[in-house]
Design a protein that fits this description.
There is one protein chain. Helix content is about 15%, strand content about 25%. It has three helices and four strands, in the order αβαβββα.
Length: about 100
């Protein structure tokens, strides 16, 4: 993913593959927390669990355990106001990642 060139666009034949219509789940990782067990046992409503990242740090996109890209969190407007989205800033070669 450190390569500065953009990943190649899918060829038309790939877009018509029977697999092109199969949905996948992408997990967005915004950070990790590493509390002590005693602190975890104390958690309740309104508890705050600090993460290892800042609000403006990039998020990571995963398919399974494979990192496929990075991006920035955004809040949508209009009819989807308040919904979160990710603006992609880096994308690994999906073919290699899967």
């Amino acid at each position: 993913m450190d390569d500065a060139s953009p990943p190649p666009r899918p060829r038309p034949a790939e877009l018509h593959s029977p697999f092109a219509q199969v949905p996948i789940e992408i997990t967005i990782s915004v950070g990790r927390a590493r509390p002590l067990v005693r602190d975890l046992l104390r958690l309740g409503p309104d508890s705050v669990l600090p993460l290892d990242r800042r609000v403006d740090d990039p998020v990571e996109l995963y398919v399974g355990d494979r990192l496929i890209g990075r991006g920035e969190l955004e809040e949508l407007g209009g009819e989807r106001e308040g919904q979160l989205a990710v603006r992609l800033t880096e994308l690994a070669s999906i073919r290699d990642a899967l």
